[in-house]
Predict the structure.
Amino acid sequence: MDKLLIRGGHRLAGEIEIAGAKNAALPILCAGLLSAETVKLSNVPRLQDVATMQKLLRQMGLAIEDKGNVLELCGRAVDKLEAPYELVKTMRASILVLGPLLARFGEAKVSLPGGCAIGSRPVDQHIKGLQAMGAEIQIEAGYIHAKAKRLKGARIVTDMITVTGTENLMMAAVLADGVTVLENAAREPEVTDLANLLVAMGAQIEGIGSDRVTVTGVPALHGATHRVIADRIETGTFLCAVAATGGDVILKGARADLLDAVLDKLRETGAVLTSGDDWIRIQMSGRPKSVSFRTTEYPGFPTDMQAQLMALNAIAEGSSRVSETIFENRFMHVQELNRLGASIEIDSHTAVIHGVGKLVGAPVMATDLRASASLVIAGLAAEGETLIDRIYHLDRGYDRMEVKLSAVGADIQRIR
Ligand code: EPU
């Protein structure tokens, strides 16, 4: 198992290229199942999760021509309408094949994803929405068996805002008979990116980017070309790394307009941020100031950035409170940050962080994707050596993070 060895205390300076968004690429790849024609994607990030999704889709018969960051998908020969447990258990986003398969082929068998490290994460809203569209759904031996001759448009109000739930139902609705209204829809930029691709494929969708999305079903979708949006979470992660170590870095390809809540908090810490259409520059000097925040759905502060900004709070001047409202168990980085000398207590869904003057390197363990990223940030800021174990979590969602960080002056290496 690979590990990362970090010798902390180096100032970061230079340029980092931001990759395409993982959480946009995953649903967008599944949208390839919706058409018999070719969908050409660019700016696809090279990540473990994207590789897992490709493996799953290929098993179903989706042809994928892999040209690095460009992928060409062709759904002409899709004939195996099943997502097996072996793949779903390694990547929950596999549930995103359910809507497209059911919509185009009238049938799907998808393993129920289990719980995961950050919470129980049920998929009841995906199922409820598809049932409202007329699908017959049975849960048997750990699998969701779904059938529908042709899905019918419906008004669906989800109990909570769900990102992949909205994406699954939107992909189901584009080929349904009639009009589907998704109320309480997720407004995350990744949902918008998927909707834009679907429109390019001939779907009729109104209210894109709002909490009420109206989809008028069409008989078939055609091919399209699409560029995946920049990864706002990778961007935010590097911004926190620079803020934690001091420095001056330009993130190329980054979209400031998708990161308002995070940029506001970083300004409060004392970072100087400037940006253009496709770049963000961060300059930081001196010790950061503590910032309190709570995670909420977009456009609020993203849960996927909670751990990284907490790492910054760990070394900041003053105390802060961080509340997690999206997932029930997303504080696993706290124990590991405390191993590096942080002073963080958990009180139910809130972490109370007392900033310390310095962290000291130690061996730590990555527990999930964003927790791993927070340990990297803490390790970069700490005195001495930090060895991070189980970085396969990191590789699921970051494209060669250690290479990008080394190029701007970090002392970080992968140990195989
Ligand atoms: N929920 C239900 N029932 C459902 C669906 C969701 O109870 O049917 C609950 C969840 O358990 C959670 C809340 O609703 O408490 C929100 O979950 P959501 O469905 O929005 O999360 P997701 O779609 O499973 C996506 C991202 C996550 C990100 C969340 C929140 C992808 C592939 N994953 O997950 O990304 O944290 O939205 O923004 O888009 C990550 O990249 O590290 C990551 C975990």
